[in-house]
Amino acid sequence: MATCLFGVDYTTPSSKDLSLDSGDTAWMIVASAFVLLMTPGLAFFYGGMVNKKNVISTMLQSFVALGVISVVWVFVGFSLSFGDSIGGIIGDPRTFFVFRNVTLAPNADFGATIPFLLFALFQLKFAIITPALITGSFAGRIRFRAYLLFMVLFSIIIYPPLAHMTWHPDGLLRNWGILDFAGGTVVHMSAGFAALAGALFLGKRKEVDDAPANIPFVILGTGLLWFGWFGFNSGSALGANTDAVKAFANTNLASATAMITWVFYERFQNRKMSALGACIGAIVGLVAITPAAGFVSLSHSILIGFVAALTSNLAIRLQAKFSIDDTLDVFPSHGIGGVVGMVLTGVLAENVGLIHGDSTIFLRHLGTMLGVAIFTFGLSYLLYIVVNYFIPMRVRSDQEQRGLDHSQHGERLN
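Above: the chain sequence. Below: its structure as tokens.
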């Protein structure tokens, strides 16, 4: 007799069902675990870069997403993202409400050789890290309760339509030919532009202290993110296949190129080659290759890493000139990095990119990026206003002065 929990059918598929592939299933379980590890990695990456009085709060803002988004995803997030399409824009929340009809049998539309439940769990990890990425922009000045509410609303209102339009078989952008292998628009551009909206809405910190609390934390976080990104990109092939291998190789090479480019560019500007710069460069390369990972050659992944490092470096400097207090430069790294990746995917994608003589996909990518930027920035800014109406988003001046570790959580870094 089948045992059901929250509507999930845990009946083992029949041995006659030959569509399940044990190799693909094993790889996707591992890839899902890799992607989950990215969020603790992000916690270390961000936590090491803030000042000492905000380390715990910054790390918790990432880590808590593992719990909050896991519950939201099971109840309604997955259904909104991958449920029956409503106009190609969003899923019907009733389709997989509380994981109803999310079975151990494969679903031909979402990984024909793996359990549908496994696909849902793999996608969960993307939904977890996206709002966590945003937190770096307002580190040191946001009320924790307000952040929790914003994270839930973002994961119900902003993330699902982007995921649905991009990755659902009936999604508007997918059917328009938009290429986003693992989340250039869905994850990085959405997080980047939401981060920009947050930095503008919350305003500048009372005291700007950019001295990193713990650079070894940043290096550790970068290593965990780089490691996890192999699951992020290679896992998006939804099987142990040649696309996964291509994505694996492109992911590593783009990140390595961006890291080297960043540190040598620092030296070119008569600055020291810093560990912090190497880490930021590596992450920017990972961001930029994400949409292109399964669509470009190895030589083109080098170009993507190189261009992304220079572009994001410049964006950080321009952002500073405009006095935008994006604490950990989330917008230049993820927003601009995602834009670079999507542009170059439209240029370099095998067979359909601009370099092959057809501008169709390239122009559609440009239009999509503009639409995603406006949608994410505008709606995120509106969500900040709504949340602030119910729970003031910014902490009081005295709480900011003491640091969020103590004022929000009653803890201190020893």
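The CA atoms of residues 6 and 96 lie 10 Å apart.
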